[in-house]
Design a protein that fits this description.
There is one protein chain. Strands 2-3-1-4 form a 4-stranded antiparallel beta sheet. By secondary structure, the protein is α+β, with helices and mostly antiparallel strands. It is globular and about 35 Å long. A hairpin with a 4-residue loop joins strand 2 (about 30-35) and strand 3. It contains 2 helices and 4 strands.
């Protein structure tokens, strides 16, 4: 299991962070994701044999946000 912290751009409210957190937690290979609107970041625990950072960023982008 690996953990990354990404800055998230494009969130305008806690509803945005809740929605992104739900999307990430329902993504195969992601064990746990915590998204903070206040800190504008996501902490993501993932199985690198199932998903990579590029795919995680793509999932964030598909949800309408930008992860760096």
């Amino acid at each position: 299991m690996k953990e990354i912290k990404l800055k998230i751009e494009g969130m305008h409210c806690t509803g945005c962070s809740n929605r992104l957190e739900k999307v990430l937690n329902n993504t195969d290979g992601i064990e746990k994701a915590t998204v903070s609107f206040e800190e504008k970041q996501a902490i993501i625990e993932y199985d690198e044999s199932q998903i990579d950072i590029d795919k995680i960023k793509e999932t964030i982008s598909d949800a309408g946000f930008k992860g760096e």
